[in-house]
Design goal:
The complex is a heterodimer. Chain A has a single domain, classed as Histidine kinase-like ATPase, C-terminal domain (Heat Shock Protein 90), CATH 3.30.565. Chain A has helices spanning about 20-35, 35-55, 85-100, 105-115, 125-135; strands spanning about 5-10, 65-70, 75-85, 135-140, 145-155. Chain A is an alpha+beta fold. By secondary structure, chain B is an alpha/beta fold. Chain B has one domain (about 10-125): Transcription Regulator spoIIAA (2-Layer Sandwich), CATH 3.30.750.24. Chain B has 3 helices and 6 strands. In chain B, strands 1-2-3-4-5-6 form a 6-stranded mixed sheet, with helices on one face. In chain B, helix 1 packs parallel to helix 2. The longest helix of chain B is centred in the middle third of the chain and has 17 residues, at about 40-55. The two termini of chain B are about 25 Å apart. Classes of the chains: A alpha+beta, B alpha/beta. Chains A and B meet through helix 1, helix 2, helix 4 and helix 5 of A and helix 2 and helix 3 of B.
């Protein structure tokens, strides 16, 4: 991968109130970096969903987000990292595997139907939404210490 | 007051208001739905709307999202939950949810049409 022409790095404690300004900041950064408002909106939505998950399910006071723009190729990457519990890391791995299997729209509709019947307060819709709505390539990394990073790549 | 007798509700950055709309009603969303648990606001509201639509035999409701700048996936879950209620209704109690969307807002173009797949024939995009 070539060197990014621009990047931003955001680090904040797991507080819900910081997600909205982070989303707007990311949206503006991408719109300036690649002059594509629709792509900026889609990636900002995706980053916001990942940040929501990180804050909701994070096990420590640290959520880390890096967004990089590669204007030559039009590639944008966004990574969100947080510390999970062992159980939380296993759950995200299982969910990721389920979401990534099959057609993106079918996976999204299936998750929507499932979420509507969940009684535990979780939606588990974010990843399926990102995959379908952005067409992004998604990657999941989990360290032995249960540090979880989800990266999206959009061209 | 509208046909359903439901008052406007607001929480954080969103306001939801119901108005009469010809033979039907319209539920208008304005602002952002990006709170941690939108179900606290939306689940009871959609339950009231659903009960009212069925009991008063109102044929259609327009869900107007044109003024909604952002909707997180927890908010989508609440809307999906409402739509799924239509699958359980007998044919003579069914009503249609029409979705009004703003093509200038990216998430509305990609997110809202997917709601039509949940219960065949229950949701239409305007």
């Amino acid at each position: 991968m070539s060197k990014p022409d621009g990047y931003i790095e955001i680090r904040f404690g797991p507080r819900w109130k910081y997600i909205s300004p982070a989303r707007i900041f990311i949206q503006n950064f991408i719109a300036i970096a690649i002059s594509d408002q629709a792509k900026a909106d889609a990636i900002a939505m995706a980053a916001s969903e990942l940040l929501e998950n990180a804050v909701k399910y994070g096990a420590s006071e640290d959520t880390h987000c890096i967004v990089q723009a590669f204007p030559e190729t039009g590639l944008i990457t966004a990574s969100v990292t947080n510390q999970a519990t062992e159980q939380g890391a296993k759950e995200v791995q299982a969910l990721f595997k389920k979401i990534m299997a099959g057609d993106p729209l079918e996976a999204y509709i299936m998750q929507m139907r499932e979420s509507a019947t969940r009684a535990d307060g979780k939606s588990q819709l974010g990843l399926a939404r990102i995959r379908y709505e952005t067409g992004a390539n998604l990657k999941l990394e989990v360290t032995p210490e249960h540090r979880v990073t989800i990266t999206i790549e959009v061209r | 007051m509208n046909k359903l007798g439901i008052e406007a509700v607001a929480q954080d950055k969103v306001k939801v208001e119901l108005v009469d709309n010809g033979a039907g009603v319209m539920v208008k969303f304005v602002g952002d739905i990006d709170m941690e648990d939108p179900s606290i606001l939306l689940d009871p509201l959609f339950e009231k709307i659903h009960s009212g639509m069925v009991s008063k035999k109102i044929p259609e409701i327009t869900a107007d999202f044109r003024g909604l700048n952002f909707l997180n996936s927890s908010g989508i879950k609440a809307i999906a939950k409402w739509i799924m209620k239509l699958a359980m209704l007998p044919a003579d109690q069914k009503y249609v949810i029409k979705i009004a969307h703003n093509k200038a807002i990216t998430w509305q173009v990609t997110s809202l049409p997917t709601l039509t797949f949940l219960v065949p024939g229950a949701v239409k995009i305007e």
